[in-house]
Every structure is written in C-alpha cells, then in structure tokens.
Write a structure and sequence with these properties.
Layout lengths: L1 H11 L1 H19 L5 H25 L1 H4 L17 H22 L2 H22 L6 H4 L6 H11 L4 H24 L1 H7 L4 H4 L2 H18 L2 H5 L4 H19 L7 H24 L7
Helix pairs in contact: 1-3, 2-3, 2-8, 2-15, 3-5, 3-6, 3-8, 5-6, 6-8, 8-9, 9-12, 9-15, 12-14, 14-15
C-alpha cells in the first residue's frame, strides 16, 4: 500500500501542481477581497490538486513511449513499468471525477464544469491531438494550466468575471515562454523523441524571438488591471520590472548557453508567475493602494 501511494504521488507531479494551486488560492483571495469561505477554499485546493494530478496521471500513460526515450522522463513510474498504463488512466479518471464533483457540490457547478473542461483540454487537446503534431502544442493545449485562477474566481463569484478571465489570459501567455525555455534545455531529447517543441524544430534565434515576444506581451498585460480599475500601480510596476529582467535573461538564449544559465532562466519564469499572483492578491490590502 505504501508503494502504491508513493507511485500515485509520482504520477501526480505534485511539484508542478503546487504552482497551479498557488494561482488558484491567490485568485480566490483577490475575487473575495480577503479570506474566502474555508469550505470553498478547501474544495478548490483539494479538488484542484486532484484534477491536475489526475490529468497528469493520464498524460503519463499517453506519453509513456515518448517518456521512455527522454533522459529527463524515462524514470517516471509508467515508462519504468512501476505502474501500468491502465492503472494510470483509471487513477487519473477517478481523481478527475472526484475533483469535479467536490468543486461542483461545495462551490458551484460553474467552477466544477470549468475543472472538467481544463482536464479535457489537457488530455485530449494537448496530450493526444497536439503534442506530437504541432509546435503550437503548448500554446493551445497548454492553456489548460491557465484554468485554475478562472475556476477559483468562479467558485467565489458564481460566474466568470473579468478578474478570473484576466488571470486566465495572463497564465495563458506566460505558459509558452516558460515551456519553450525548458525546451531549449531539452531540445535534443525532444528531437530524439519526435516531439515538435519549438526549440527542437527551429533555431535558437527563432525560439528566443518567440519567447521574448510573449514576455513583452506579458509586460503590457501587467498594466491592464490598473487601466481598467481592478488593480493598482504596485502590480503594474513590479511586474513590468520583472518582465524587463526576464526579457534580458531570455535574450541570451539566442546563442548557445551553459545548461545552468538556461535552467536559471527557466526558474525565473516560475518565480515570475508566483510573485505576480501573490502581489495581485495582497495589493488591495497595502496601505498605499
């Protein structure tokens, strides 16, 4: 039983899921204007973790042939035969069903259906339809990772509102430069596995151009909440500065860089999203807001 639980946790990719949960919690706090209802908060945290973990589990079953060819992923529990593909899919479906039911019953059906939609996009659009066929795989299919703040705000407000939609768009445009930076690091592995990530089918110069283009777009998006009236200058200024720093670090990728330099730019993208959501969440409570 202990081994089964350990393998189930490995299927879930909880380190990846933790950032998604952070975006959801911050979005809930922003939408509520303070501490949200504890039952709804718990449903979003637990249900969101289950839904994302279930989607990751199914993804590992689908990608087992690709994962077995890549050094970074060949030790995962499905390609290493610690968990069967059938068990991974069944575990994933069970977690997703439970997550949708929990969020729908404790929060509302809008949030529950959005949770189901996010899982469907990740499994069917990204994992099955696009990952092996198009370099736009992460642009379109990766949008499933933008759903947590939209789900969270719907759980609080009962419907899709502008704050949730803005945060969805923000994560949607953050996702490509984040993953393309990782793809620069792993371009040879993606090429060997036949996965058309941008860095594996284009030059470093073209990949870097696309990364920088998205970062510039994010820098502009930082000012939208202030312009419309649901955000302040603190978020706009801090995230503009972080966008500029991320842009400077990413420009270097057009030329071959040491592995640690590329990985550092990748970690910076993670910090960028986490800092952005925390500031967006706490900004209304700052004395100068």
């Amino acid at each position: 039983m202990t081994l089964f639980i350990r393998n189930l946790i490995a299927l879930s990719k909880l380190r990846v899921v933790s950032l998604l949960v952070l975006t959801a919690v911050c979005a809930m706090w922003k939408a509520e204007g303070g501490m949200p209802d504890l039952a709804v908060l718990a449903a979003i945290v637990f249900g969101g973790t289950l839904a994302a973990s279930g989607s990751n589990s199914i993804n590992q079953a689908i990608d087992r042939d690709i994962d077995s060819l890549m050094l970074r992923t060949r030790s995962r529990v499905v390609p290493s035969h610690k968990v069967s593909p059938k068990m991974a899919v069944l575990s994933g479906i069970t977690m997703i069903i439970f997550a949708v039911a929990l969020i729908a019953l404790v929060a509302n059906w809008t949030a529950g259906l959005l949770t189901l939609l996010a899982a469907i996009i990740y499994v069917f659009v990204y994992s099955i339809a696009l990952k092996r066929t198009s370099w736009n795989n992460i642009v379109i299919g990766g949008g499933s990772g933008a759903f947590p703040p939209l789900i969270a705000t719907a759980a609080v407000l009962g419907e899709i509102e502008i704050i949730g939609f803005y945060l969805f768009v923000f994560v949607f445009f953050w996702t490509p430069p984040h993953f393309w930076t990782l793809a620069v690091l792993l371009k040879d592995e993606y090429s060997a596995a036949g996965v058309p990530m941008l860095a594996s089918i284009s030059s470093l110069k073209e990949t870097t151009f696309q990364i920088c283009l998205y970062i510039l777009l994010l820098g502009a998006l930082c000012w939208l909440p202030f312009a419309i009236g649901f955000g302040g200058l603190t978020f706009a200024i801090v995230m503009s500065l972080m966008s500029f720093y991320w842009l400077l670090r990413s420009r270097k990728l057009k030329d071959p860089q040491p592995r640690e330099e590329v990985f550092s730019a990748y970690r910076l993208s993670l910090l960028y999203l986490a800092v952005g959501f925390v500031i967006f969440c706490i900004e209304p409570h700052l004395p100068w807001y």
